[in-house]
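Two entries, shown back to back:
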Amino acid sequence: MATLNLTELRKYEYRAPLLVDKVFKRNKKENKFPTIDGIFEATQIKLDGKTYDKYSPVIAKLIVNKDTKRLEVVGTLEGQPGRKTFSLSKLEKSEEFGGQPVGGKRENKGNIFERELGNRFVEILNGGTAKGPYAKQAAKILKITAKTLGQAVIKSEIVAGANNPRPLILEGGEPIIKPGVPMKHGPQLSDITLTHKSKKSYLSLKFGSTLTFVNSGVAKYFFPEIEMMTGKLKNPTGVAVLKALGIDNERFCKVFKDYGKVQNGTTVPNHIENVAGKVNKAGLHRLLTTAIGANYWMVHGKEGGVVDFWFMPASRNNAMATITGPIMLMYGGVDGKGKRIDMKFSNQYFDFKLNIRNKQGGLYPSHLMVDYKSKAATGKQRL
């Protein structure tokens, strides 16, 4: 099993507070850490030689401060006399800190989030008391959706396995995410569907720091390798996508065809460009309206039991898909050397990052993805 280090603790914001909570047995955490020598029960933390034997919120802040160079824990090994001081690297990276569980593979956190939230819905709807992770959040979601539709929730069903694909297609000569009507994306995106008396609430669950609107395959119909090897796409579907995004056809192909042939630091000269004046604004807008969709609730789970919740209404779909400000295109990614195209653009609701790359270890593009980070204007609330 991997071990902890300061870089790992600083990687996610929940990890430093978690370690402090464990050492001082706060928030129902136990001060036990697995090590190669057995279970270590920690009671003190040492940062660069200074000992902390009582809880303080300052400790977690000092841990994430890059000026802190050494972290040790003081305590006892089960079954052994005397107190010991262990460096952080002696503590195994347990499942709590994002590591592998003992004796098995780590389950996808998104799947865990979906299952736990779904179980809490069922417990509440069966008239019982919800216990376990996300109990408070599940109760709030049921109340909010019932109030919104004016009907109580009577049933909850996990439908993630039945998620319908949302492929990238051309419609009217413009790229869209099928189906072409944003309102129809609610059922397509639902991971948990709440049934009311005569209506439904569609919940799209996401977990982690990166959220994705689109993850569409493009190798066969849009960017076939045999065409890209010639240095220019000719098929109308691929050309339409590049036009909508303001991407130069030949420079796009060169990023992949000439990957590894770096000249003056990048594969393509002047690899970063503001293409706000080059994009097909109507085409990009249409693509985003269908990528974002409408008629569903976003349930965004984060580390530490945090859940953000907001509705994606049809009435704001156009505004959510309207880009303001620069549209930065990066041939070869940020450093200009990668086998990818990156684009960054924003509006008051989201910061978007679109990329075209190979997700399967190959050279030529396999997928087009649209990742995003939400902003306060979405109306999101912390449950």
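entry 2 starts here
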Amino acid sequence: MLTTIIAVVVVLGGLIFFHELGHFAVARGLGMGVSTFSLGFGPKILKYRKGKTEYALSLVPLGGYVALVGESDPKDIPEGFTEKESFALRPAWQRLLVVAAGPAANILLAWLLCWTLALGWGTPVLLPQVGGVVQNGPADKAGIQPGDTIVSINGAAVANWQAMADAITQSNGKTLAVTLSRPDMAPQADDQTRADEAAQPEQGMIISVELTPERSIRKTIFGEEESAWLIGIRNSGAVRLVQHGFADAAIAGAGQTADMVSLTWQSFVKLAERVVPLDQVGGPIMIMQMVGKQAHEGLAGLLALAALISINLGILNLLPIPVLDGGQIVFCLWEIIFRRPLNARLQDYAMRAGIALLVALMLLATYNDLWRILKNTGWFGSGS
């Protein structure tokens, strides 16, 4: 329990704090005044002043905040600061940079975490090993069996599952010459033995077969049905960790970060399109459960989850909802394009609508979290 609490505080608090640090760094870099930069919320436990800024450690350690001079009222200039340091009186492009720096900091943090993972643990690559075969499908008819590893297709080496899948889907239904390796394995070998041998592959019996992909329906990660050329196999889940040097790890981390950003953005789009049902929306309770679980399973999984949550936090804040950074970015862009700020009354109405929308989303997420907990406890039937 204590491990879970510490992990939740460090991960969630750290991600929100890093977000605010982005705002702080760019604001100070542009010469804007910051009256307070706090780690945590609520009553201040410790505080000290450096220059004009008060740095504080507050009671509730989840996140932090930055108090920019003139952010809420251009005329509210604390003692010691000048109007030149007021956030609200700065050009729109400068305010846009400050606002956008928070989400950008979350993406940067995710990259640093992925870089650390690639350097310390390596990047996982899903091997082209067959875990299951669809009955009467092309692979089954060609004699492919669970445990086989696809070595090449039409003479081109296959390094991972994605490369193999791409070669099959891009075949346009043409016959493929497939070379596979079949390990010399006792019939009673269990799944763990297969996974271990996949991670440390040995050259088994080399078999060459020909098969013709069939046009079939499959489901995407979001549950949508799509038509594709398939041969009727499932992966075994076996992976290999690819080790990297310092610079290569940075590049690999950037690639993983880009993939997570793309997937997260698609998730928001699919949610808006109702492809992903609303009951899949999770909130703080689900996040805490996930963090607690990963904290007990190992540091690598916890860092990977922290990177994913950081990206979600960054992209969520970029949504064009007025109370979020994305909404403020829209206001700044309006001012830059039309050379005047949006009408104050319209901004006020938009802010109220944004607050109402966020409250509704939080209530939905919390309801979903509680409903999942109740289902899993068996109060309302099986959770399976």
